[in-house]
Amino acid sequence: MKNRLKVLRAERDWSQQDLAERLAVSRQSVNAIETGKYDPSLPLAFRIADVFDKRIEDIFVRD
Asked: Domain extents for the chain?
């Protein structure tokens, strides 16, 4: 699954650690999601969408 997480994070000038703290996950988890090594659980996907005030489908797309 592809995602816009890195772009959205950069637009806010947040580090991976900044985003990780907002999501209550590790920085390594954010990195794994951004690089496509890990697809987030549905609850985490909702938290990500909430943090960026976007719909899940605006952040994650099937490749």
From this structure: 2-57
